[in-house]
Amino acid sequence: xxxxVAYILFLFVLVSFxxxxxxxxxxxxxxxxQFPDPSSVFPTQLAAIPYGLQRDARYVSRWIQNFAYxxxxxxxxxxxxQMGYIGASDANGDIWRQTYFGLGQNLNYxxxxxxxxxxxxxxxxxxxxxxxxxxxxxxxxxxxxxxxAFRENQAFFKFDSQELVYKGVDSLCRLAISYLxxxxxxxxxxxxxxxxxxxGQTASWIKFTYGIxxxxxxxxxxxxxxxxxxxxxxxxxxxxxxxxxxxxxxxxQKNEDxxxxxxxxxxxxxxxxxxxxxxxxxxxxxxGSNAFSNRDPRIRHMLAASGDTATxxxxxxxxxxGLGDPLFTFTTGVNANKRVAAPWGDSIYNNxxxxxxxxxxxxxxxxxxxxxxxxxxxxxxFIKAEAAFLKEDKSLALLAYTRGINLHIDFINRPFFPxxxxxxxxxxxxxxxxRTSYLAGPNVRRSADSLTLSDIMLQKYIALWGWGFFETWVxxxxxxxxxxxxxxxxxxxxxxxxxxxxxxxxxxxxxxRVRPRYNSEYGWNAEELQRIGGFNSDYHTYETWxxxx
Length: 549
Description:
The protein is mainly alpha-helical and about 550 residues long. It has helices spanning about 1-20, 40-65, 75-80, 95-100, 105-115, 120-140, 160-180, 190-195, 200-220, 230-235, 275-280, 285, 300, 335, 375-390, 395-415, 430-440, 455-465, 470-480, 520, 525-530; strands at about 65-70, 245-250, 270-275, 370-375, 485, 490.
């Protein structure tokens, strides 16, 4: 009843203001138009994409063991390492917020005005972003609001099945491509070259949209309906080179336009690389030895080395989830140098530049002015490799797998980025000799017969580490974290272990979904949440539809 009264009062306020329109008509001022051109709205939508992804990555990154928390005394934060959650909180709610509040109606505005003015490029790109956000949201939460999303004059909203949302994303992608391919655009008005600082032209948006389709169809590998040929066809139409990568750059001139993972914003202070990624890159997992000769050349560009470099792996250390860093409190002596370093650089243990912009403290994607990837050509090749492997075309799988590794090295070696964003390689790029040696070494398969599912998935994990958190989480759930590859009788994710202690709320089960955003759904849409089990204490462990047979 209170909600209904509040809603009626809200309508009354709207009607009252409508009656005063002649006194409050903001369109009377040409300098503050109420209906801005899509070209001026679209850049804000691109800038908003990392908002939800990077914030929620603080939690998912721990479930997939990209990162772990180094302070075991912080019980609330260690709980995320143990696949837990915080109740009655909006933690983990930023993808939801961006889908329905941050970009939702703004994208609808661009689409509606773009159709009215025949700005088909803006229409197609905005529909593609809508598809992207719904894909993230359903993979993250499971059942979500889709068919009733953005309906006006409605207080309660129905949650749709994940199967329906997946079909809806497919339809949105096809609609986006149809608009992007239209040629009767109003050429008297601005096009993407003005408002789009990611691509600036429709051909790349078409490739990106096919990439969303590739993800959408490939997530269903456990279904009898899985169609590897269609996935491969989508990949072949998608991103093919590093110049096709969808990268959101940052200007780093104020808090809002600085990378969330940089030192200025200070969001990774207690985050540390895990043993899982260290052992993938130092040779332990893929070659069976962390001898220097087995080291992946990408390790020095991606991971932070500890000050003590006299160890067998050259100072690259990691944490196991939920255990923290036993040397966390050391500040002097040799043990201080053995602590796991912070993501911003070698031998850095505390944030050296909080609230100060500095180009001196950054490594890989962790800096104030470095890009945040949303999709890369390397990822697309690993999708293709797995699809080809599953259809038993191992020759094609090997080609895509090898290309995926090379494209990730190309990504690290890229000599420039949009808006003068920082380079990713550390001091010098990976040399041709280093690349050749690695590809010829024991970490990489060179024959179709020797290639395994683990090889593909672990190299994909490396290529997505530090940015592709949500796609990696989809992959790990598809293989139920610790599934065995029947061909090798070994785990698909070799070296990966669930936390030694799972959160008490999990009832002994790993996490499979995130609860809907607390303040919008548990406060206002409780009846629908009750219907889908959203109030059950272990709701976050319910397996999602996409990963089931």
